[in-house]
Design goal:
Keywords: Endonuclease, Hydrolase, Membrane, Nuclease, Transmembrane, Transmembrane helix. By secondary structure, this protein is an alpha/beta fold. Helices cover about 50% and strands about 15% of the residues.
């Protein structure tokens, strides 16, 4: 029957044979293409997974350091940097509305903030060397404005050095918190209380 068909219509048979061969070649090519596509898809999936992992890593918020990153030697900072460092400590320990307001005409307030329990804290910063202690005159000037002008609920004088005995006595009478160099270091490294947690007894 096939031989008869070849004799009667050789052109059609040739066309059918060519089409059959082309179909086989096409089928093999499709198989190869499908395999290549599967390999490419797997590679893309792997690349997408790795990219997603990298993205997840980048999107993890960086935690703020437990200790403010400032020069451990406060004395080496400029007065402005020292005020910024004290403001950063307040912010680290939960204060809101932290502002550095020191400068000409500040009337004794260098940093103002609101403590976590809602009290207004006013801080004066005295960046002195070890030999230069904060005297009673410094406290009296600050005491004259911190409560009446700045409406402080908590008034704090922070220094890198120390206080004279009359200064401490005046501060105790007025309810001003004195933070000397040692207390400042303790506040910084978290081993001591925040100034607004250490109010003097009045």
């Amino acid at each position: 029957m096939v031989a008869g068909a070849v004799e009667r219509r050789p052109g059609w048979v040739l066309v059918l044979v060519v089409l059959g061969i082309a179909a086989l070649v096409g089928l093999r090519r499709r198989v190869h293409v499908a395999r290549a596509a599967r390999r490419a898809a797997a590679a893309l999936d792997e690349a997408a997974r790795e990219a997603a992992e990298e993205l997840d890593t980048d999107l993890i918020p960086r935690q703020r350091p437990a200790v403010v990153e400032v020069d451990p030697c406060y004395e080496s900072l400029t007065p402005e940097e020292f005020e910024e460092a004290i403001a950063a400590l307040c912010e680290r320990d939960g204060c809101s509305g932290v502002e550095v307001v020191g400068g000409a005409g500040d009337l004794g307030a260098d940093v103002v903030a609101v403590t976590p329990d809602g009290r207004r804290v006013v801080i004066q910063c005295k960046q002195y060397g070890e030999a230069n202690r904060v005297g009673s005159q410094d406290l009296q000037r600050f005491g004259g404005t911190c409560f009446t002008v700045h409406e402080a609920d908590v008034a704090v004088l922070v220094t890198t050095s120390d206080f004279t005995a009359p200064a401490v006595e005046y501060a105790d009478q007025c309810g001003i918190v004195c933070v000397d160099g040692e207390k400042l270091r303790n506040w910084t490294d978290g081993t001591g209380p925040c100034p607004w947690e250490a109010l003097p007894e009045r």
